[in-house]
Amino acid sequence: MSDRSTTEHSAYLGQDEAARLKTILEGTRAGTWEWNVQTGETVFNERWARIIGYTLEELQPVSIETWLKFAHPDDLAESEKRLQAHFRVRRTTTNAKPACVTGMATGSGCGIMVAW
């Protein structure tokens, strides 16, 4: 590794987790969305909007309905199945925390959903 690469890598690792995550998301050009199930609050990034052919401004105001409107029907069925399984598990734990769902899409149409 060159001195410059080592220095850049060290600077990257010196960032806090949020800054590293931001760098990763920008570098992978991932479209992301977040949904706080309890409050209903949603957050979509500009890349997510671009993947589906819009700007984030054009989609305002955003809600979970925004995601439902643009999600593929097959994804909706799978997402519902996973969410219901997640909520069943949460109801059986004594230390259940508020649920938040985060998703990521790529330009290829592939994506993941993470719930906690």
Topology:
Layout: H1 3-14, H2 17-28, E1 31-36, E2 42-44, H3 46-51, H4 56-59, H5 64-70, H6 73-92, E3 100-105, E4 111-115
Antiparallel strand pairs: 1-2, 1-3, 3-4
Briefly characterize the structure.
By secondary structure, the chain is an alpha+beta fold. The chain has helices at residues 3-14, 17-28, 46-51, 56-59, 64-70, 73-92; strands spanning 31-36, 42-44, 100-105, 111-115. The protein has one domain (29-115).
The domain count comes to 1
Say what oligomer this is: single chain
Return residue spans where pLDDT drops below 50 for at least 5 consecutive residues: none
Q: What proportion of the residues is helical, as a percent range?
A: 40-55%
Biggest sheet statistics = 4 strands, antiparallel
**Helices and strands, in N-to-C order?**
HHEEHHHHEE
- How much of the polypeptide forms β-strand, as a percent range? 15-25%
On the 0 to 100 scale, the average pLDDT is 78
**DSSP summary, beta strand count:** 4
**Estimated radius of gyration:** 17 Å
Number of helices: 6
What structural class do the secondary elements suggest? alpha+beta
Overall, the morphology is extended
Cross-sheet strand order for the largest sheet: 2-1-3-4
**How far from one another are the termini?**
38 Å
Question: What would your notes on this structure say?
Answer:
This protein is α+β, with helices and mostly antiparallel strands and 116 residues long. The protein has one domain. 53% of the residues lie in helices and 17% in strands. The chain has six helices and four strands; from the N terminus they run H-H-E-E-H-H-H-H-E-E. Strands 2-1-3-4 form a four-stranded antiparallel β-sheet. A hairpin with a 5-residue loop joins strand 1 and strand 2 (42-44). The longest helix is centred in the C-terminal third of the chain and has 20 residues, at 73-92. It is extended. The mean pLDDT is 78.
